[in-house]
Amino acid sequence: MKFGLCLAAVLAALLSSVDAQDEAVRDFTLDAYTSVTSITDLTPDLDYSVSINSFDGSEESIPIFGQLTIQSGNSSDRVRRPTDTIKCSVSAITDLVFLVDGSWSVGRENFKHIRSFIASLAGAFDIGEDKTRVAVVQYSTDTRTEFPLTRYTRRGDLLQAINSLPYKGGNTMTGDAIDYLLQNIFTEAGGSRKSFPKVAMIITDGKSQDPVEEHARRLRNIGVEIFVLGIKGADEDELREIASTPHSKHMYNVPNFDKIQEVQKKIIREVCSGVDEQLSSLVSGEELVEPASNLQVTEIASKSMRVTWDPSLGDVTGYKLTLNPMLPGMKRQELYTGPTHTSINVRDLSPETVYEIALYALKGLTPSEPIMATERTQPVKVTTECSLGVDVQADVVLLVDGSYSIGLQNFAKVRAFLEVLVNSFDIGPSKVQISLVQYSRDPHTEFALNTHHDINAVVRAVRTFPYRGGSTNTGKAMKYVKDKIFVASRGARQNVPRVMVLITDGKSSDSFKDAATNLRNIDVEIFAVGVKDAVRSELEAIANPPADNHVFEVEDFDAFQRISKELTQSICLRIEQELLNIKKRSLLPPTDLQFSEITSRSFRTSWTPPAARVMSYLVRYRKAEDITGDYISIALPSDATSVVLQHLSPLTAYEVNVFAQYDKGDSFPLSGEETTLEVIRYRLSYVPLSGTGEILEAQTIEDETSIVLQELFPITTYRVSVFAEYSTGMGSEMQIDGTTKEVLGAPRDLRVFDETISTMKLAWQPARGNVLQYRIVYKPVEGGDRKEISVKGDTTQAVLKNLQPATEYDLFVSAHYTSGVGDPLIGTGTTLEELGSPRDLTTRDVTDTSFLVSWVPAPGNVRQYRIKWKSLYAEEAGESTIPGDNTAMVLDGLTPETRYQVSVSAVYGHGEGQPLNGEETTDISAAAKAIVVSEETERTMKVTWQPAPGNVLNYRVTYKPKLGGRQLAAKVPGGNTSTVLRRLTALTTYDITVLPVYRSGEGKAREGEGTTCMTSFRVTWDHAPGDVKGYKVQFHPVGEDIDLGELLVGPYDNTVVLEELRAGTKYTVSVFGMFDGGESLPLAGEERTTLSDGPDPTPYSPSDVTCKTKAQADIVLLLDGSWSIGRLNFKTIRTFISRMVEVFDIGPDKVQVGLALNYVLQNNFKENVGMRRNSRKIGVLVTDGKSQDDVHEKAQNLRNENIELYAVGVKNAEENELRSIASDPDDIHMYNVADFSFLLDIVDNLTNNLCNSVKGPGM
Fold first, then answer.
1. Nearest to 366 by CA among 270, 469, 289, 466
2. Which of 1171, 1200, 1054, 1161 is nearest to 1112 (CA)?
3. pLDDT band at 65 (very low <50, low <70, confident <90, very high)
4. Of 186, 202, 272, nearest to 240 (Cα)?
5. Is 1086 inside a domain boundary?
6. What's the rounded mean pLDDT across residues 37-66?
7. Among 689, 718, 804, 997, fewest CB within 10 Å belongs to which?
8. DSSP-derived secondary structure letter, 602
9. What does DSSP say about strands 133-139 and 954-961: parallel, antiparallel, or unpaired?
10. R_g of the chain computed on alpha carbons
């Protein structure tokens, strides 16, 4: 913002900003030459007050002031002045609930417009626990409370919450959502207060997928005023079902979300006004009036409808019915009835118009909640044929100009036009009669009204009447029609509409005005049709008004067709209207209108009933000068002969109309005027009803209608008489009784004691009289929320709780009586300073010798903070203090990789608060983090690390192939700093992690990597052609003939593992094919081993598994001893067999085990090799590759002999072949592992299954 400084010698300026809602004051000191500054971190939609002072030393200028507000949803550089915002009155206090449509159709982008609208409406009120409370509920498929009425008591907090409302998404279930408000929000548990105004602002953009009307009615019935804002796809009928009445104030609909601002100000004004009206009703103590029910609209016509209802179940004095047209400029109707009248036929409505109908039950002047309906009047039925009904009658005269100016040819066109005209009527002696008169110099009757009695005769006469010629004496012709045609002898009838249609082509040659007037005076409706040279002013003087539907002009005789339809419609409407008037004239009106009991605000209207039987009376009145104003109507029963018109304006003339209502319609009104009186003053006399006091008198100043009667006795009922004084004398007496209240006292001698940081006790001397309760109001002197508590009237002590520490409070203690509240006893009290604790201890910037500690400050006036730290691993400890305005400190000089306990205490002037504790571990040093890998072999490596500090329970060592694979783990005792990793894969790099484990958790990780080496390798070749008998494999270090190794393998082998080689040595390998005639030339190659010799295989360790059974079993182990296994892996197989066999009780009468190596398995299940006839027979096959001969048939033969087969595959074994060997099921009899080292992982499971096989089924 910009501002100017007006002092020439200013040293500095002070800028202060504060929100009107008790936000903290912020001060900024600027240098003497500053004229522009920025204020940041402001809350949207809060009004900020800004003041600027300039000062020189200790002298300070008078401040200049300004205000600013940041709009929600906009960038901070867009500032609106508070004058753009709308504020409700300070007294406007309500429970305001927003029900927000968060369905998918709204969209996340449009939801920001809804947030802005909510913020603007909520921001118009003063927010607080004892002021306006606000809740927001969002709904879609289901409904949830975003925040309840009790959540926010500060305007800034509320607006921030509104601006961060989340978008929900889902379907539109408005009915369920309204019911949710009723059950969960507008309840005492939900924070809604009794005897406070209640407002619901419903915002929706679509039609609800469930019914809403019943839920909305129930919400209105508990006193909630409902405003509804529909957007885009909202259904207007549904919005009417939801909103309170009148809908013009409570229902809004905009075509899109960005149009909300166009109605925003009007909505806020109406909501504020509605809250004020609710408050006025609550303050006046008006009781709720039970509404009527079952509003029905029937007998709907173009200008009338009947409204009926079921009476109110309560005690009412009458009903008020309003009909508001939905089109602007149309007349509104307001009607009143008595308490037993439940039906009104409302007349004088506008055709084809939608009316909003509201019915209120009245108790005195207090209305109920209205019951509503909407209905449209029928359009006026206009036809070109006057067959309006079987009883339609009219006498129609066609007066046709036959002068020479027309000519014979054009006269034929006149005949054709007349034929069209007469065909519009239903001709007959009791229906429409037509006469034709032709005139020029003299008139001539072509046929009279009673000449023709059907349409065919009339048409023939029209077609054949002659053209006579002559001058144009229109006046003479009209006199002739009056004297010779509209007479009984020529067929004219009484009480039948009379119409004359004049057709002329020129100016009249004689005087015509009197003749036309005389016709109109006998109720003849005149229509004039001018052709060619006819004079319009002459036509208008002849025809009835208005001219726009009584005067017609055509440019020539060929243009008759253009006006025929409009002319016929006008004639038919006139006939219909005149029939109604004739009917009305037959309905006798009341007589002898009298006015009496005239006052400044009312008078009585009386009448004499007609002789006929009346159904009811309708009295309508309005100010006489307001000739276009709306009437107020009162419906009265048939036996009524008077009514008092009330709530009138003084010294004002009123037009009064009394209609007698019959089943056929209303009579013409009995009309009159009366003027209310001007009151000079009101005179009052009042006396105690007990008769113990004297009669007192008082008078008002001029025509004021209220006065305070003084010097009365307390708790005494007075009879008050009021007389209006007019210039003509005194009015009639009005009486009312009123009772004075008791004397309202005040407590005395307020005492404050036993103060703590959040409480204080109060005591006082009691007030006089019968005190119901004492109410204690308290509020911080420096500003803050006002709170209150109550205690019983016989109590003179109270405890104030949940106070702010070190805070001075204003205290008000007032006595409450049945009749009111006495003057408060005022004092102050101050709470003690709080010994608080800081909060939310956090650490960061951790190194191996330091870390930073920070916290949220403790409450109150903290002098300094005391920081202590202690190692959890050793005796190391420290302590330091820092000033109280600091909230962070770096602890340094610490031991690496050590867990410290840290405590922070707030130090006050009179003590120290409870410490805030936390823990942090220093980082590991770079040297301690590294691990050392040594003694790498093909399957193992040694890992060594620096010891972790403290009492390490153990180290968890994890290692995993760097390029992916299964992670392995080992646990090492806490006193060790090295271990050997086993079961590794040759020539593989491993990621290795060492984690110290403490009772309190894990320490800092040590990390590194290591790679296994190779002291063996595999040799593979393709088979030699021919009848090879075997192969010889020779190998030795390159360049050395010593350490020459040689292996012989069979003719079907093509691979061998060379083991126990020298590490880090390149070997030459030669493979010879062996034939009967000698050996082939060698196939040669080279390979290098890695640096370290291999370790011994895993040593044998006894198993914990045992198989206890008395069953006999013969187990044969068939082991693959092919070269592809290698000696080292074969050692592992030996250990595997040892572990498997040791679980059995071996003996000639128990379990026997045989071993078959490179031998046919069938030969081992013979009695000559020790097999027993009745023992269970089990075979276990261990192999590392695919068989080079067929195994399926041989295995099936063994199974057919009840031999149970197990198949164990290692490394390159083929799983399908294993499955074809093993007995069923596979999950028990077949195993396949990735490497020989994993055999020991399955041995226990395999021996358990073997044991079960030995025991047999059911064992």
1. 289
2. 1171
3. very low
4. 202
5. no
6. 60
7. 689
8. -
9. unpaired
10. 56
Q: List, for residues 238-260, the tens digit of each pLDDT value.
A: 898 899 888 888 999 888 888 88
Asked if residue 778 and residue 902 are part of one domain, the reply reads no
How buried is 544 (Cβ within 10 angstroms: 0-12 exposed, 13-18 middle, 19+ buried)? buried
Looking at the structure, do residues 180 and 222 belong to the same domain, yes or no?
yes
- Return the structure tokens found at 68: 């600013």
Instruction: State phi, psi for 1197 to the nearest 5 degrees.
Output: -60, -45
Q: Do 824 and 710 sit in the same domain of this protein?
A: no
Question: pLDDT value at position 1174?
Answer: 78
Structure-token pair, residue 837: 């604790």
Whole-Å CA distances, 1198 to 602, 1116, 1184? 125, 12, 21
* Structural domains in the chain (count): 9
Residue with tokens 């703590």: 756
Give the pairing of strands 133-139 and 143-147: antiparallel
pLDDT tops 90 at residue 1112: no
Q: Are residues 169 and 187 in the same domain?
A: yes
Which domain range does residue 56 map to?
12-70
Q: Report the CATH number that the domain containing residue 1111 is assigned in CATH.
A: 3.40.50.410
pLDDT tens-digit readout, 546-584:
888 888 988 887 777 778 788 888 888 888 787 777 777
CATH code: domain of residue 795: 2.60.40.10
What's the pLDDT band for 69 if we cut at 50, 70, 90? low
Entry pTM: 0.38
Pairing of strands 551-554, 524-531: parallel
Q: The tokens of 131 are what?
A: 């002021």
The DSSP secondary-structure symbol of 481 reads I
Give pLDDT, residue 1168: 64
Buried b (16+ CB within 10 A) or exposed e, 1147-1184: eeeebbbbebeeeebeebbeeeeeeeeebbbbbbbbbb
Edge-first strand order for the sheet with 143-147 is: 143-147, 133-139, 95-101, 198-204, 224-231, 251-254
C-beta of residue 1012 within 8 angstroms of C-beta of residue 939:
yes
Structural domain includes residue 402 = yes
Give the end of a domain, one of 676, 708, 725.
676
The candidate with the shortest Cα–Cα distance to 144, out of 91, 99, 189, is: 99
In this structure, are 577 and 595 located in the same domain? Answer: no
Please state at what angle helix 408-422 crosses helix 560-586, rounded to 10 degrees: 40
* Boundary-marking domain end, from 249, 284, 319: 284
Q: Same domain for 151 and 248?
A: yes
b/e string for 862-885 if b means 16 or more Cβ within 10 A? bebbbbbbebbbeeeeeeeeeebe
> Are 1003 and 948 in contact, with CB atoms under 8 Å apart?
yes
Q: What is the pLDDT of residues 439-477, one digit of tens each?
A: 988 999 999 999 999 999 999 999 999 988 888 899 999
**In Å, how far are 140, 648, 954 from 976, measured between CA atoms?**
64, 107, 8
Cβ burial, residue 521 (10 Å; 0-12/13-18/19+): exposed
Q: With 70 as the cut, is the pLDDT of residue 54 above it? A: no
* Amino acid (1-letter code) at residue 627: I
Of the two residues 117 and 573, the one the predictor is more confident about is 117
555 and 630, same domain (yes or no):
no
In a domain, 201, yes or no: yes
Query: How does the average pLDDT of the chain come out, rounded?
Result: 82
DSSP count for the chain of H helices, then E strands: 19, 74
Average pLDDT over every residue of 612-628:
88
Distance CA 103, CA 1194 (A): 73
User: Which of 422, 444, 418 minimizes the C-alpha distance to 433?
Assistant: 422
Q: What share of the chain is helix, strand, coil (3-state, %, to 5)?
A: 20, 35, 45
Q: Does 269 share its domain with 251?
A: yes
Residue 298 within a domain: yes
CA 808 – CA 59 distance, rounded (Å) = 30
